[in-house]
Design a protein that fits this description.
The protein is of the alpha+beta class. The chain has nine helices and 19 strands. The relative contact order is 0.11.
Amino acid sequence: MSLHAHVGCRVGDLDLDVSLDVGDGEVVAVLGPNGAGKTTLLRAIAGLQPLRAGRIRLHGETLEDPAAGVCRPAAQRGVGVVFQDHLLFPHLSVRDNVAFGLRSRGAGKAQARAAAAAWLERTGLAGHANVKPGALSGGQAQRVALARAIACDPALLLLDEPMAALDVETRQSVRRELHRHLDAFTGPCVLVTHEPLEAIALADRLLILEGGRVVQEGPAAEVARRPRSDWVARLVGVNLYRGVAAGHEVSLPDGSRLVSAESGEGEVFAVVHPRAVAIYSEQPHGSPRNTWQGTVRVIDLRGDHVRVHVDGPPPIVAQVTPAGLADLSLTEGAPAWVSVKATEVDLFPG
């Protein structure tokens, strides 16, 4: 891998211990709840947060290794960084902001300005070359920050919530712009984000952090199909249970059980998509293998569908249409019955 980072550091109550490998031309998105260590990981790789333990290597060169007494300064790591709040120099013009990285690496003023002008042309900001950052919109400022990071031809690109401060419409246009540049970028890239859509649209692989540790990593489709924590399950919108399987039956910690068409043994995860959950106002007839009564806790309207949260045991979320909900006449606090076919309970090792 072009980037190998084993990052061990402590910031306040956060004890971060993460290993990350990224290949040339690969984009890895780092997701996790607030306080998981996402930004600290990025700052450590960039050289803005010292390591307590571990090692960072880029293209075979050691950038930092506390045990060996190696710590290359941030400005000498060949890293381009884009932060969510732009961090443009307010006293410099847009063109000189983009040229700054080139100038700091030894390029002459005329050469750096010419390269900056070319990047502003590519990002549709040529007409703003002589203005100060304060005159830009949020989307324009973020495109300037991106141009500044890429213009100096970095060996590694780090993006920290690059679209978090943008409105929805601007975020879409900047995402398209970013996608185009990442397709052309030949080095490794690490993207920190809290938006699953952003991660799926831009990244080749996901890495999930919780409490300073990696809890799951892999392609987006695999993470969505087999979440390994409650946070990931909520992120991808599925019901996740952990229990002990004995053949087709899974015993859950709350004393309830699920029956699956699949067979398993020992600790397993069981996943049920909300679309596979049938919900009723009265006890259903027929022979679904998983049927139980609960209480409607939350009814969440989401455009063309409704997510109904039912307290268990076990608790579960069902997805229905607005018309279906109206037919059921369910309200928050009302009793409800749910059922799930055994074929809709997916098992994988825990």
